[in-house]
């Protein structure tokens, strides 16, 4: 007699087991799209493919040593929604920018950091640019922007060249430029288009939004017009918000002199101007903190390690820094000092750390201080 396998109890249990197994599988294992499909072949071939398909090229610019590039590849490019969107709308290309044609494209498109995500048309012209990691939803939003000719980087440039200067347009343009490493252009726009406004149009919530979001690019304007007349912004924006925005911009600018020490991005003239400004603004909250940070960066740039340690000793001894600022300045500076070949200098750095009152080091900061001490001791 022929068995009816579909009515067999064992058959039914096999079906249940398979169903339960599938429920436990990740979504990407059940879909044909396991990630963004990257096209292979020469750069010329990719441009021709973009022309045939009438699509933009999405170019993932990475290097072998870039950690966030690997995170993007493993966790973001494999997201089902990201994959569906990018596979539908773009010719996707991934490229090591330290090999082959990648070296040429770094120069052509002005790539300064990784990961960098570019959108390029069939003529090889840049349509949009973003430097840095993005989560899945953010990457989809970036792709949507790239597809809108009036809102991507190329479109914003055209609108600006055509004379558009509405605050919200400038605000969005500056946001895009900030992720495209266009710092000099940002400073020019803020200085020219905001700095040229009369008081009635300058001291407004809309202008403050732009200054607040672009503090470092707006440093010249902050010093020349905002800080001396900040009470005028108090009338249209909450005082606390204005003060916090000024402090955030000045703190970031001051610490940038430490980060840029020894590099071409360190600007001695700008350093001199800011020192003069803070010396003349002793009533400005935290002026001493900003000034000491700038001096630290200047001495680091000149490799005057004894002077660096003298400033740090004052910071530790006289407690005039806020704890977060102190922790940042001490750790970043002493990690530069750890590169000094003079072991006596590095020992003095370790003594500075040992002199810190233990009660002022918060638990979450202890690993950072321990790592810095190991670097000074030559153990890392």
Automatic annotation (TrEMBL):
<dbReference type="InterPro" id="IPR012336">
    <property type="entry name" value="Thioredoxin-like_fold"/>
</dbReference>
<dbReference type="InterPro" id="IPR013766">
    <property type="entry name" value="Thioredoxin_domain"/>
</dbReference>
<feature type="domain" description="Thioredoxin">
    <location>
        <begin position="23"/>
        <end position="148"/>
    </location>
</feature>
<dbReference type="InterPro" id="IPR036249">
    <property type="entry name" value="Thioredoxin-like_sf"/>
</dbReference>
<dbReference type="Pfam" id="PF13098">
    <property type="entry name" value="Thioredoxin_2"/>
</dbReference>
<protein>
    <submittedName>
        <fullName>Thioredoxin family protein</fullName>
    </submittedName>
</protein>
């Amino acid at each position: 007699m022929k068995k009816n396998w579909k009515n067999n109890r064992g058959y039914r249990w096999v079906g249940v087991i398979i169903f339960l197994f599938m429920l436990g599988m990740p979504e990407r294992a059940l879909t044909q799209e396991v990630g963004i499909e990257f096209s292979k072949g020469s750069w010329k071939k990719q441009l021709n493919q973009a022309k045939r398909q009438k699509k933009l090229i999405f170019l993932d610019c990475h290097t072998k040593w870039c950690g966030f590039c690997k995170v993007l590849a493993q966790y973001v490019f494999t997201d089902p929604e990201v994959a569906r969107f990018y596979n539908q709308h773009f010719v996707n290309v991934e490229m090591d920018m330290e090999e082959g044609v990648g070296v040429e494209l770094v120069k052509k498109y002005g790539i300064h950091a990784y990961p960098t995500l570019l959108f390029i048309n069939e003529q090889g012209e840049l349509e949009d640019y973003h430097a840095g990691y993005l989560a899945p939803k953010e990457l989809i939003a970036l792709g949507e922007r790239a597809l809108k000719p009036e809102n991507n980087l190329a479109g914003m440039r055209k609108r600006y060249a055509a004379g558009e200067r509405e605050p919200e347009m400038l605000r969005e343009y500056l946001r895009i430029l900030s992720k495209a490493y266009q710092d000099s252009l940002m400073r020019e726009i803020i200085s020219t288009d905001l700095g040229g406004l009369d008081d009635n149009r300058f001291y407004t919530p809309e202008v403050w939004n732009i200054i607040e979001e672009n503090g470092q690019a707006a440093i010249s304007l902050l010093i020349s017009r905002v800080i001396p007349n900040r009470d005028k912004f108090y009338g249209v924006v909450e005082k606390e918000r204005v003060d916090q925005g000024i402090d955030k911009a000045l703190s970031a600018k001051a610490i940038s002199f430490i980060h840029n020490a020894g590099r071409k991005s360190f600007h001695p003239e700008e350093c001199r101007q800011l020192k003069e400004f803070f010396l003349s603004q002793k009533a400005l909250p935290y002026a001493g903190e900003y000034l000491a940070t700038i001096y630290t960066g200047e001495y680091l740039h000149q490799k005057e390690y004894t002077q660096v340690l003298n400033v740090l000793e004052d910071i530790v001894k006289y407690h005039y820094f806020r704890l977060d600022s102190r922790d940042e300045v001490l750790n970043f500076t002493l990690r530069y000092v750890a590169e000094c070949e003079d072991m006596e200098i590095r020992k003095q750095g370790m003594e500075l750390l040992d002199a810190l009152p233990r009660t002022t080091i918060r638990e979450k900061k202890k690993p950072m201080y321990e790592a810095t001490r190991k670097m000074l001791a030559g153990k890392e």
